[in-house]
Amino acid sequence: MGNFFRDNEDLRFYLERGVDWERLVSLTERALGLDEGFEDVSAAIDFYQEVLELVGTVAADEIAPKAAAIDRAHPRLEAGEVVHPEPLASVLAQLDALELHGLTVPRELGGLNAPLLVFHMQSELLARADVSVCAHHGFHAGIAMAALAYSIDEGTTTFDEEGRIVDTRFREVVDTIVAGQAWGSMDITEPDAGSDMAALRCRGTLDADGNWTVTGQKIFITSGHGRWHFVVARTEDEPGLRGLSLFLVEAFDVDADGTVRRTHTTLDGVEDKLGHHASATVSISFENAPAQLVGQRGRGFQQMLVLMNGARVGVGFEALGLCEAAHRAAADYASERVSMGKTLDQHEMIACMLDEMRTDIQAIRCLAMSAGYRDEVAKKIDIRLRAMPPADPDERAALERESAHHQRRARHLTPLLKYLAAEKAVQMAQRCLQIHGGSGYIVESGVEKLLRDAMVMPIYEGTSQIQALMAMKDNLMAAVNHPRTFVRTAAAARWRATMASDPLARRVAKLQTLQHQAIRFLLSRLAGSKLRELRGQPMADWSRAIRQFDPKRDFAPALLHAERLCIVLTDVAVAEELLQQCAEHEDRRELLVRWLERAEPRSRGALDQILTQGQRLLDALAQTAAPDVMAAK
Ligand SMILES: Cc1cc2nc3c(=O)[nH]c(=O)nc-3n(C[C@H](O)[C@H](O)[C@H](O)COP(=O)(O)OP(=O)(O)OC[C@H]3O[C@@H](n4cnc5c(N)ncnc54)[C@H](O)[C@@H]3O)c2cc1C
Fold first, then answer.
1. What is the 3-state secondary structure (H, E, C) of 20-88?
2. Fewer Cβ close by (within 10 Å): the C or N end of the chain?
3. Is 37's pLDDT higher than 90?
4. For the chain, what percent of residues have pLDDT higher than 70?
């Protein structure tokens, strides 16, 4: 019997040592030792391990062997409904039977109350077997948790004095998903609006009786044949993002006997895709579909980002699973295939590729675990502050600080994770195919499927370019808004780069100085004419002039180099996270060395491109309108 959890030492590191489970468990359980919960932290961890072992076995023994057949038999539209053909149908039924859709749902709502991080870890295991099975599976728990989070956010979830949930507005969504009877989707994209959400046209209308309806068409909706739809629609006459609101639409009613009665929504089609075949991607029309407004009018973009940021961490774990599959297939093949007298893995170039794949996988996992952990801790602290605000103001302030710290770091890491994981998934799948030579190009090998499946990762949940724009915007604006902090941080990194006693800390600091150099250079190129007179002056004095700049107009050089900056930011972020691990786990130093070996020249190269390239192109583009970076999702 295989087990995708047990055979993965790096993943087990995080369950056994690499995560502060004590903090996460303390925020996830109301209190330990209660009747319905765990006796102590180690009992909770034992339970998480049981779940991962179970999913690891199902992924290895039940899903992976059927992945090729699932790939061939796509979901199809029959009589207006999507049908899951065999063997996909039985694999999904097997997953339903595990009763894990409520894994992260609080116990009082019928769930198993596990941390979201455990859900993410099981996603990696499923994705290693088949990434599209994992994707569809994720639209169960993911939507239940989104419904709960939105209700808590708008104040329609009530808690008792011990912090237990008494009721929640979207109870039916949670209940039907936990029971394995439903799933949901996130409906944003339209024919003329993908990355550019400001162009969304789907309309939310309020009638005289105070009831909302939604009308319009959405395309490319993953698992959009489900019952619950979070739909972003335009409700205000204001153009752009401010006019958007979020709705919950029930796509169909289900009678007591289980008969589906589709009303107000039409499935227009199921896309015939390059890969990712277990996950139905549908186009759907809403015709005056009854809808519930979620949260405040006009805040649809911000609410969507909350859901999407979680989903981006999810894609990081999905991509990780695919990378594991690609690396293992490549390593296995290379260890057996003989060329010119020795196995492929003994040939220097192939050994180098395999080494890079192994290192990148560990780097992605490190970012994914950190982003997932921090996002969850921040959110759970916020919920605790709402449900059970501490009477002691110092305790409250400490919790707020802890939440803000994790939130900032999660916001920094999330686009970098999505970018790195998605780009590496494609690269690793391609390298896996390359290492298989001609056999890799033959469908029977199963290797080309990995590449087809990987190709969507840099596209959905915000493309790689959009992640790069987000990261660039956040980092530049942070330096603009807090120039003194930026200058201090940069000086401290320069000092550590020469003075830190640990040679690895020196190398990480040196890498950080490349990041600061890139940001400083891009800032100096912003609003060139405005800043020209400031050149040569200390950066801490720039803030007055920079405050007057218009990001939409003045960002051109930074927009051009966003992806290069993203590469540097990612190299640095991974190095920082690994250095932190090294402080507690000496054995992680070897991984940091491997990472730095590749990250240092890569970041130097990206910085060199930022410093020396692009003027010719910028001059040519100068007459055209700059894109609205603020509207990118
Ligand atoms: C399999 C699949 C599943 C999906 N699932 C969902 C789902 O569940 N829900 C949902 O709402 N959508 C979903 N999508 C849609 C997906 O989110 C969009 O395809 C994606 O956001 C890109 O939008 P677009 O296709 O309109 O491309 P465009 O936005 O037109 O982009 C085309 C290219 O231009 C680049 N680009 C765009 N703007 C800029 C810019 N300002 N600067 C630099 N480059 C830019 C993009 O990076 C991309 O490379 C899915 C798509 C696929 C293929």
1. CHHHHHHHHCCCCCCCCCCCCHHHHHHHHHHHHHHHHHHHHHHHHHHHHHHHHCCCEEECCEEECCCCH
2. N
3. no
4. 93
- In sequence order, the 6+-apart residues with CB closer than 8 A to the CB of 419 are 464, 467, 468, 471, 566, 570
Of 459, 617, 628, which is best to mutate to test ligand 1, by the most ligand atoms within 8 angstroms of its C-beta?
459
Percent residues over pLDDT 90 in the chain? 84
Residue with structure tokens 């927009």?
A: 559
**pLDDT tens digits, one per residue of 323-355:** 999 999 999 999 999 999 999 999 999 999 999
Please work out whether the CB of residue 276 comes within 6 Å of at least one atom of ligand 1: yes
Closest CA to 625 of 565, 562, 559: 559
CB-CB contact of 249 with 291 (8 Å): yes
Ligand 1: atom nearest CA of 188 is: 11
Residue 601 tokens read as 């020249």
- pLDDT for residue 524: 85
**CA 5, CA 15: separation in Å to the nearest integer?**
10
- Smallest CA-to-CA distance from 415 within 150, 633, 128 is with 633
pTM of the predicted structure, to 2 decimals: 0.95
Size of the chain, expressed as the number of residues it contains: 633
390: three-class secondary structure by DSSP? coil
**Amino acid identity for residue 453 in this structure:** D
Of residues 191, 217, 224, 192, the one with CA closest to residue 203: 217
pLDDT tens per residue across span 512-559: 999 999 999 998 887 565 666 566 666 666 666 666 666 555 778 899
Q: What architecture is the 1-182 domain classified under in CATH?
A: Orthogonal Bundle (1.10)
The answer, yes or no, to whether residue 381 has pLDDT greater than 60, is yes
Helix, strand, or coil here: 105?
coil
DSSP letter (8 states) at residue 389: -
Pocket residue to mutate for ligand 1, from 137, 195, 276, most atoms within 8 A of Cβ: 195
d(CA 584, CA 19): 11
Query: pLDDT for 172-197, tens place per residue?
Result: 999 999 999 999 999 999 999 999 99
HEC profile for 295-345? CCCCCHHHHHHHHHHHHHHHHHHHHHHHHHHHHHHHHHHHHHCEECCEEHH
**Phi and psi dihedrals of 632, rounded to 5?**
-70, 140
Dihedrals φ, ψ of 533, to 5°?
-70, -15
Is the distance from CB of 574 to CB of 512 less than 8 angstroms?
Answer: no
Residue 465 CA to ligand 1 center (angstroms) comes to: 10
- What are the φ/ψ torsions at residue 268 (nearest 5 degrees)? -85, -25
- Lowest mean pLDDT across 34-38, 117-121, 563-567: 34-38
Domain chopping of the chain, boundaries:
1-182, 183-298, 299-462, 473-631
- Neighbouring CB atoms inside 10 A of 451's CB total 24
- Cα–Cα distances (Å) from 163 to 154, 155, 379, in that order, read 17, 14, 15
Model confidence at 630, in pLDDT bands (50, 70, 90)?
very low
Say whether domain 183-298 belongs to CATH 2.40.110.20. Answer: yes
CA of 462 from ligand 1 middle (Å) equals 6
Nearest 5 degrees, angle CA 121-CA 311-CA 77? 100
Q: Which CATH class name applies to 299-462?
A: mainly alpha
- Residue from 189, 457, 559 to probe ligand 1 pocket by mutation (most atoms less than 8 Å from CB): 189
Pick from 274, 286, 107, 46: nearest CA to 187: 286
